Amino acid sequence: MVIFLLIAVPAGYIVISAEQSRDSGQSKEEEAAATGLYNDFPSKVQQRIYNVPVPAGSTPVYYYESNAWHRSSLYVQFRTNEWGLDHYLKWAGTSRAALKDGEITITGAQAAKVGWDLASGGQWAGTSLKAEGPGPSQRITVNFDDPDHPVVYVVSTVAFKR
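^ thats the sequence. predicted structure below, dont judge the formating
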């Protein structure tokens, strides 16, 4: 009986560890293979690199990261409240005053990449932030159809020097 336990317990541990490890790898693989928006908050590292600090309490939140040799972009969509919008814009380095009414700053190609339909009417406002030094450039577009809960669309791009 003792010999059986000496073999069974470590074997069980190995099976459980392997399953947990495989599950972790599968979720990372699914995220990397995603071709559209991922329903979750971007990681804290992504929010920091791309300067897209999604306000707490925002829901739903979607994101997609596109990586290439010369540039990487983070696409983020989230619904927030007035406080969240003001704080997000402040953290991003701008303000609500910089939003231009009727302006959709995200290009059609960028919107199509993640399935956003930004051209179909609505109350839009947007602004663009140019990169300073190694920081990201951002295109921010906000839908104010529900002014108490605006939907924020951001494409933040980091360009790498060749």
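Residues 36-159 form one domain.
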